[in-house]
Amino acid sequence: MDSSTESPNHTIEQVSGITVRLAGDSGDGMQLLGTQLTNTSALAGNDVATFPDFPAEIRAPRGTRAGVSGFQVQFASEEIFTPGDTLDCLVVMNPAALVTNLGDLRKGGILVVNEDGFIEKEFKLAKLDKNPLEDEILESTYRVVKVSMTKLTRAAVAEHGLSVKLADRCKNFFAMGLVYWLFGRSLEPTLRFIEAKFGRLPEVAQANESALRAGWAFGETTEAFGISYRVDAAELNPGTYKNVMGNQAMAWGLLAAAELSGKEMFYGSYPITPASDILHELTKFKNFGVRTFQAEDEIAAVCATIGAAFGGTMGVTASSGPGIALKAEAMGLGMIMELPMLVVNVQRGGPSTGLPTKTEQSDLLQVMFGRNGESPLPILAPQSPGDCFAVAVEAWRLAVECMTPVVILSDGYIANGSEPWKIPDVASIEPIVVKHPEGQSADGDPFMPYQRDENLARPWAIPGTEGLMHRIGGLEKEDGTGNVSYDPANHQHMTDTRAQKVAMIADRVPEQELFGAESGDVLVVSWGGTYGACHTAVQRCQQAGLSVSHAHVRYLNPLPRNLGTMLKQFKTVLVPELNMGQLRMLLRHHYLVDCIGVNKVQGKPFTVTELVEAIRDQACVGKDCTVVDKILKIRVG
Amino acid sequence: MNLPVLKAADFASDQDVRWCPGCGDYSILAQMKKVLPELGFPREKTVFISGIGCSSRFPYYMNTYGMHSIHGRAPTFATGLKTTRPDLMVWVITGDGDALSIGGNHFIHALRRNLDINIVLFNNRIYGLTKGQYSPTSTEGQVTKSTPMGSIDHPLNPLSVAIAAEATFVARSIDAHVKHLEMTLKRAANHKGVSLVEVYQNCNVFNDGAMSYAQDRKQRPENTIELEHGKPLIFGTERDKGIQMIGNRLEIVKTADVAVDDLLIHDEKTPDPALHFMLSRMRYPEFPEPIGVFRDVQGIPTYDDQINDQIVQAREKKGQGDLQALLNAGDTWEVA
């Protein structure tokens, strides 16, 4: 808490950052509320990071703990990389939301409660034997603000003549108005949103607007809070920004890759959480020449993508782990056919159906090894929502240069999370050069579909080109001619060549970057969506004086050429992953370095605190860390 | 511009054909090579896509573009290719195991979407490549390597399935009936929309003679009936029998007993699949099995045309996509 000013009715406190979670029933509109608060905060120039968390059921049983839907956002005047560990403010719409979320609210934090949701019926649904608001500890631990949101909303929208059911649906806008007042957010962006979204239903639009304004007015007039907060704009790199979600940035990155390579895109997919939003986003861009194909199943989706790739189109398929399992055979086919295409895996909790709406990083070994035979594929992982854009472009560049399918490993946390994103100048991105061999006379030399260039890539000869008629397929091909071959030496040669082709990518992509000193006690090696938590934890530990550095791996296959040497400069290599040790297994295999894992599969991202503790435990072995612990404010033992 | 006149030999690739001697596939390959030059379509714009099985080696033997893909999925590869490259003529070569067992799903969806491709289904009612297990079209009670006590599966009728999926072109021919096969392939190629040609094809190693009732020149007139649009359904060596609709059932009648006008008149053009479906249910030995074109419904929009029309429409409405404008749109803010 930085500074305070007095206003006529209340104190305004200047703070560097706030973490808020909005929680209610899965029909309460919490995701909408969270998204609006995020966008508004981003437009105010804050750095933001979000974590939507919702049940797999469309309408999980109302009022139950299983049905609680939450949206967490941190907005700050400094650069942040996570949605925050502990909450400064929790807004709950019902008892189930209170009991499932209260544990994350810091002591002294603000608890805003929709008092109307705390009735006998709701206690039963939430499996509570009494009103949790009556617990004395609540008032003494937190700053509890009880608001009769349902009644106030009904009163605010009464003039618009809505049914009680429709009127009650506006209460998330009332809550929004109240939250906006509390944190000094502008109503303007949300008023614009209401107009755009509900413009065709004027009475609904007006009611939502009235509820929003009523929420604000309640904060301003009741003195229920006595205090409100202000967060200044963050100092980000100069440029034009917008707020993006991961799946959105992925879709835009794919569009950019198509444009940079002068290609039109074919996107074949089958609906699956959390990948579907890429399909939804891309269907908007038919005027870019994007052909989206909602296939009959995952296999059809990937195979149609290969068919499109054979025809010379930019083929993309996306799914999540269970769908990738179904695509595996065809991914192997794409590999042996040596066709460029992209396979996006937006990972979720596994195995099997697992936790469809929760995040995990447990498909690394699946995409690395989950195909029959020796079938290496390049793998890249974005580190944040906005980074999906750059990774999509980079992956397509590699696919074209090497004539191979490339896997992108996103995850649910990245896909649904959002952050401010500096809008790139597309014209300044290096174009992706695609070469299709030109036609020749049918009487000319026989065409060699497996003749290789300096990248060991074969030519991308496409149907319609005169004189280049050739047949590809899953049977092993003779190098050069592409004729079916069972020759033992040829199979060995082709296997080696395909492996070498992927391995050689390491020579052309950037070396592994390191955040921190080049040697020391602990190196944290991370990949994918855990970047933010790992980076923040390392930063904190460095500030506390610990000898720790951070390497966040973007290229998972092949691994960066300098990574092995880098690992050996540290006493301990710590590998935090939202799986049971998949990258750790690969690192130990490749470099014979004994890595230590920090592993978690709870459907939740890492908190910074748990990583700080893990780093501290390794860095402090045999050292007196009393001072460090004081700075880190962690309790040891 | 003078287009070169191609011959059947121009469509032969330089690969050795490796089917068993006497396999019905040779005949289908020969008829295909004969039909393609007559279509006057460039070789380089012709693509054969197959799945897995004996029949699926077919693309290797054609001097066109080709893809030997994975089991049962050929229609899906064709979907991606044809929707992005409507300028190509795409053939799917498949077998009864490939199309109807592992690929049953894709078979139905390619048909119901009316993708403008040609599917040739080689039906020998047995698994040849895996050496003699029963297939989805094997007859009940058939003893095979995997059914020593006889198959207990009810056979699937591919044409019934295709007609139920409202495929716009559905036909049947026979490997040994080369003139008929040539005609049928040609008509399939010329159909705008999806076409399915089931070809009765002998597997002389694992299921020899399973369809000799239709293949054998002498037995054929009694056991098959050739469908012709607008003509009454008449069959028999003496052409003395016909098919009449009595009540809601098809029955065999003597032509001497009924007026020609009372016989069923074949209408391949009607979009209503009901009668076509009934024809597909005519099975040997109770009925002569129809060969020829069951259904040739025209003017139905194709999937590939529609997906590409949407691109054109979107561009007419919104203009060509501008990526930078898209990225810059919406709520943005400046950091100085």
UniProtKB/TrEMBL annotation, chain A:
<dbReference type="InterPro" id="IPR029061">
    <property type="entry name" value="THDP-binding"/>
</dbReference>
<dbReference type="Pfam" id="PF01855">
    <property type="entry name" value="POR_N"/>
</dbReference>
<dbReference type="InterPro" id="IPR002880">
    <property type="entry name" value="Pyrv_Fd/Flavodoxin_OxRdtase_N"/>
</dbReference>
<feature type="domain" description="Pyruvate/ketoisovalerate oxidoreductase catalytic">
    <location>
        <begin position="27"/>
        <end position="215"/>
    </location>
</feature>
<protein>
    <submittedName>
        <fullName>2-oxoglutarate oxidoreductase subunit KorA</fullName>
        <ecNumber>1.2.-.-</ecNumber>
    </submittedName>
</protein>
<dbReference type="InterPro" id="IPR019752">
    <property type="entry name" value="Pyrv/ketoisovalerate_OxRed_cat"/>
</dbReference>
<dbReference type="GO" id="GO:0006979">
    <property type="term" value="P:response to oxidative stress"/>
</dbReference>
<dbReference type="InterPro" id="IPR050722">
    <property type="entry name" value="Pyruvate:ferred/Flavod_OxRd"/>
</dbReference>
<dbReference type="Pfam" id="PF01558">
    <property type="entry name" value="POR"/>
</dbReference>
<dbReference type="InterPro" id="IPR002869">
    <property type="entry name" value="Pyrv_flavodox_OxRed_cen"/>
</dbReference>
<dbReference type="InterPro" id="IPR009014">
    <property type="entry name" value="Transketo_C/PFOR_II"/>
</dbReference>
<dbReference type="InterPro" id="IPR022367">
    <property type="entry name" value="2-oxoacid/accept_OxRdtase_asu"/>
</dbReference>
<feature type="domain" description="Pyruvate flavodoxin/ferredoxin oxidoreductase pyrimidine binding">
    <location>
        <begin position="265"/>
        <end position="478"/>
    </location>
</feature>
<keyword id="KW-0560">Oxidoreductase</keyword>
<dbReference type="GO" id="GO:0016903">
    <property type="term" value="F:oxidoreductase activity, acting on the aldehyde or oxo group of donors"/>
</dbReference>
UniProtKB/TrEMBL annotation, chain B:
<dbReference type="InterPro" id="IPR029061">
    <property type="entry name" value="THDP-binding"/>
</dbReference>
<feature type="domain" description="Thiamine pyrophosphate enzyme TPP-binding">
    <location>
        <begin position="52"/>
        <end position="199"/>
    </location>
</feature>
<dbReference type="GO" id="GO:0030976">
    <property type="term" value="F:thiamine pyrophosphate binding"/>
</dbReference>
<keyword id="KW-0560">Oxidoreductase</keyword>
<dbReference type="GO" id="GO:0045333">
    <property type="term" value="P:cellular respiration"/>
</dbReference>
<protein>
    <submittedName>
        <fullName>2-oxoglutarate oxidoreductase subunit KorB</fullName>
        <ecNumber>1.2.-.-</ecNumber>
    </submittedName>
</protein>
<dbReference type="InterPro" id="IPR051457">
    <property type="entry name" value="2-oxoacid:Fd_oxidoreductase"/>
</dbReference>
<dbReference type="InterPro" id="IPR011766">
    <property type="entry name" value="TPP_enzyme_TPP-bd"/>
</dbReference>
<dbReference type="GO" id="GO:0016625">
    <property type="term" value="F:oxidoreductase activity, acting on the aldehyde or oxo group of donors, iron-sulfur protein as acceptor"/>
</dbReference>
<dbReference type="GO" id="GO:0044281">
    <property type="term" value="P:small molecule metabolic process"/>
</dbReference>
<dbReference type="Pfam" id="PF02775">
    <property type="entry name" value="TPP_enzyme_C"/>
</dbReference>
